[in-house]
Amino acid sequence: MSPIDLRQALGGISGILVTPFDADDRIVPGRLRQILDRALAAGLHVPVVNGNTGEFYALTIEEAEAMAGEVCALVAGRAPVLAGVGRSVKEASRLSRSARSAGAAGLMVHQPPDPFASPRGMADYVEQVADAADGLPLMLYLRNDAIGTATIARLCAIPGVVGVKWATPNPLKLAEAMAACDPGILWVGGLAEVWAPALYAVGARGFTSGLVNIWPERSIAIHAALEAGDYAIARDLIADMAPFEAVRAMELNGTNVTGVKAALAAMGNDCGPTRPPASWPLTSDQQATLQQFLRNNHLIDA
User: Fold this and answer.
1) What is the pLDDT of residues 233-260, one digit of tens each?
2) The predicted structure's pLDDT at residue 182
3) Residue 269: which region, alpha, beta or left (left: phi > 0; alpha: psi -120 to 50)?
4) What is the dotted CATH code of the domain comprising 3-228?
5) 3-state secondary structure of 54
6) Contact by Cβ (8 Å): 269, 31
7) 115: cis peptide before it, omega within 30°?
8) Parallel, antiparallel, or unpaired for β 161-166 and 186-189?
9) What is the mean pLDDT of the chain?
10) Could you tell me which residues come within 8 angstroms of residue 84 by beta carbon, excluding any fewer than 6 positions away?
11) Angstrom distance (rounded) from CA 285 to CA 91
């Protein structure tokens, strides 16, 4: 896929896939087949492997490499695959090279969670990843805008960087960053459906989604409403998701992926548990709320 095609797709929905585990805690990528087939049939624009909904930081580097290769094979050219890379700069560079070899269309560069990451060091990090990517487009995954607008502009000026997945609940900072960067940079809402209207209002296009694992049709409908400028419809569609998002936000967001995997299990597509430090399983109250949400939206039988 050409960079132009990838850019167009990134203005849609970036679906962050779960990582399936079996009873022996081994990855079983094949369990994504049904999820991917449904999501792509619904209109998913960009499957993303090794994102946070994929428990990237709970995977070994070998597992992350295997997941990127398997997802590219399962998608089989039906859409551009974005592969998450991160952790140490050497590991991120290794993952970049292996994802490129596997057929990924681009890389999503996780913002390093190192407590001593500096703005200057961030630029050095991305430059080394870009070198390892060898021409593959990079989307920066920004979860902390405290690095400052000047640093964001420097990161976006690195050759190979085509856009930013903006994952901070600060639309005014997003608008400031957009004004400081090359107009060709693509800004994608990185806080899923709930924050998509607010980020769209200042110029972001597209959004990330974990919901696509269980209800891609709803994500596609929200995207269509936002693209049409119909914020009222988008808000109504998002409001129906409130119980699900409430469960995912519990325990300091420690049930974020847990809620998705518990929903998949209830729907008959068991992708195993989450790994620590995420919570598993849901509490009885959390599970009851989730089950009611699934029944109300006809995702499981009443």
Assistant:
1) 999 999 999 999 999 999 999 999 999 9
2) 97
3) beta
4) 3.20.20.70
5) coil
6) yes
7) no
8) parallel
9) 97
10) 48, 49, 50, 51, 54, 56, 64, 95, 107, 108, 109, 110, 141
11) 39
Separation CA 200–CA 221 (nearest Å): 15
CA 151, CA 177: separation in Å to the nearest integer? 10
Q: Is the pLDDT of residue 12 over 90?
A: yes
How far from the centroid of its chain's Cα atoms is residue 174's Cα? 18
Domain boundaries, the chain: 3-228, 240-302
- Tell me if the pTM is above 0.90: yes
Query: In this structure, what token pair is assigned to residue 156?
Result: 């976006």
Runs of H (alpha helix) within the chain: 3-10, 33-42, 61-75, 89-102, 119-133, 149-156, 171-180, 192-201, 216-227, 231-239, 242-248, 250-253, 256-266, 284-296
Q: How far apart are CA 300 and CA 302, in angstroms?
A: 6
Distance, in Å, from the CA atom of 290 to the CA atom of 67, rounded to the nearest integer, reads 28
Q: Alpha carbon of 297 to those of 219, 221, 287, 301, 302: distances in Å?
A: 13, 14, 15, 10, 9
Length of the chain measured in residues: 302
Q: Which three-class secondary structure string do you get for 218-244?
A: HHHHHHHHHHCCCHHHHHHHHHCCHHH
Q: By the 8 A CB rule, do 175 and 144 touch?
A: no
